[in-house]
Amino acid sequence: MIDKELQKYMPTVCPSCGKFLTFDGIHLMCNNENCEGRIACKLSSACGMLDLKSIGGQTIKPFARDFKNMFELMKWVLKNCDYPDFSLEKYEIRKDSRSHEIFVNAFLNIQSLRYDQVILMMGYDGVGRKLSIQVAKEYCGLTPDYASIERALVEKMQMEDIRTYILKAVSDLESLGVTIDKPSTKLNNINNMKTIYVCMTGSPSPINKTKEEFKSQFSNVEEVSLTDKNCQYLITNSLNSVTSKMKTAEKKGVKIITYEDFKNKFSSL
């Protein structure tokens, strides 16, 4: 938990939209659903989740002006990229450039997606891998396991307009040649894994541009404060850094690990 004295110096308004920020003890958050900065973060996180090669936060940021989630962007690219007049110059990518080719190919190379990935592409607040797997099971007529998942989030994903939107998204992607893999025993096994509670400091670059991109690679990682009794790891970009968090982790007996070592240790789970 951040000291109250330090909170006095924290920003109070979103630099992207000017709306007031809220603080949950770990994150400063903008609650404006139409905030371009907030949407850009979700698009960037989706890039990491989908492993879109060479598309980082700065590249994806301009698309937040017109696309609310990754599904809308992917659908637009796949539907229009074969037309001669298809252009990305509005989004600061010059036509016929290498950057244009890389951007389009990143989407064209997606041959299949898991059903839960389609749900995650929507960027619904609070909906992570664990919940998306169970929602995918329910949408496919299987029995979900919502134990230990916040009821309000479950009810949100059971709303008819959200269900209809996701089912249509699956249909649209399939019509564009993307295979959607239905829930399987493998997903059940992933969901049953124990949650790993971590605190992150420094930057995960060059592994990922942002911490959200880094977290999106893991099915069972939850970020908490270093003072949280459940915290198991402090993830840092350097074991040689001398910060208050490093000292606190050593004092509390929290394991300190680099982003690279954490990925090597847990990415296959």
Explain what the structure shows:
- The protein is an alpha/beta fold and 269 residues long.
- The protein folds into three domains: 36-109; 113-190; 193-266, BRCT domain (Rossmann fold, 3-Layer(aba) Sandwich).
- It has helices at residues 4-7, 36-50, 57-60, 70-80, 98-108, 115-121, 129-139, 151-157, 160-175, 185-191, 211-215, 244-252, 259-266; strands spanning 21-23, 28-30, 112-114, 179-181, 196-200, 221-223, 233-236, 255-258.
- Strands 6-5-7-8 form a four-stranded parallel sheet. The chain has a two-stranded antiparallel ribbon with strand order 1-2. The protein has a two-stranded parallel ribbon with strand order 3-4.
- β7 (233-236), α12 (244-252) and β8 form a beta-alpha-beta unit.
- The radius of gyration is 20 Å and the shape is globular.
- The mean pLDDT is 87.
Core attributes:
Rossmann fold; 8 strands; 269 residues; alpha/beta; two-stranded antiparallel ribbon; 3 domains; 13 helices; globular; single chain; 4-stranded parallel β-sheet
Quick synopsis:
This protein has 269 residues and is α/β, with parallel strands linked by helices.
Q: Helix/strand/pairing class, anyone?
A: alpha/beta
Based on CA atoms alone, the radius of gyration comes out at 20 Å
Overall 3D form = globular
Largest sheet: 4 strands, parallel
The count of β-strands is: 8
Enumerate how many helices there are, as a single number.
13
| Strand adjacency order, main sheet | 6-5-7-8
Helicity level, as a percent range? 40-55%
Low-confidence stretches: none
Order of helices and strands: HEEHHHHEHHHHEHEHEEHEH
| Oligomer kind | single chain
Average pLDDT value? 87
User: What's the number of domains?
Assistant: 3
Percent of sequence in beta strands: 5-15%
Give the termini distance in whole angstroms. Answer: 30 Å
